[in-house]
Amino acid sequence: MEISDEQAAQALLRWYAEMGVDEAVAPQAADLYSWTATKPTPIAQTRTLARPAPNQAAPQTQPVTTEETQSTDAAIAAAEKIAAACDTYEALEAAVKSFEGCPLKSGAKNTVFTDGVVGADLLVIGEAPGRDEDQAGKPFIGRAGQLLDRMLASIGRTRTENTLISNIVFWRPPANRNPTPLETAVCRPFVDRLIELSTPKVILIAGGAPLQALLGITGIMRARGVWREIETANGTKVPTLPTYHPAFLLRQPAGKRLAWADLQSLAERLKDH
Ligand code: URA
Fold first, then answer.
1. Which of 124, 131, 133 to mutate to test the pocket of ligand 1 (most atoms within 8 A of CB)?
2. Ligand 1: does its nearest atom lie under 6 Å from the Cβ of 169?
3. N or C terminus of the chain: which is more exposed, having fewer CB within 10 Å?
4. pLDDT tens for residues 139-163?
5. How far apart, in whole angstroms, are the C-alpha atoms of residue 172 and residue 88?
6. Residues 179 and 128 sit within 8 Å (Cβ to Cβ)
7. What is the average per-residue pLDDT within 188-198?
8. Is 209 helix (H, G, I), strand (E, B) or coil?
9. What domain range includes position 129?
10. What is the pLDDT of residues 257-267, one digit of tens each?
11. Domain annotation covers residue 175
């Protein structure tokens, strides 16, 4: 059977939609198959960084060369150096926005770093920006984000007053898939530095992916509701509470009872500080 160009184009569009490709964010398609663990997107930037060592008065400067960025390990090392050299939240935000070492960036429209109050005693860390977040450049603003807002409001928390929100990666993964270990590892130094600079008393970990990326634990069902400490690159320790991701709760409302218990535990802990 002959098919017309129009039918072929429609079939192609349907296939794209089934694969999760639901919008064009760049004039040219990103080559996702070139993203391998051994051949990451090279980092274009070359900059001199000051990384103060503990108890050291004069900061040392170390160049980050282009050669250093030719492997995944080098991309992580570059992220570590860049993040450690940021002494303010504003510097960190600018560094994340200009960082080219995470392969997710080339497929995203915007960098999605944080939303809320920097310096708040509560930091929420989710998984990854989705379509709405990528469009707006802000985390958790789609349906899951709206549920997160309602969950937080139930314990007197809002992103305009007393909560900061971020994710373990800062660019939308293609077709909203989970971020890979490589992608989370490259972003991790920036997450650590965000924790160090925004000084939360408590971190709410929303979902299994951030649980795995931040604490190395699999299985949100068993891990949720249990307080654990995260230790960042510079040795800062912060209590964390894993709970269900709001997107999971939208699909499985029965989980809300346990999420509610987690929120009560969170509110109690915040009262102590
Ligand atoms: N889900 C997340 O984990 N983060 C967002 O920013 C949006 C949805």
1. 133
2. no
3. N
4. 999 999 999 999 999 999 999 999 9
5. 25
6. yes
7. 98
8. helix
9. 67-272
10. 999 999 999 99
11. yes
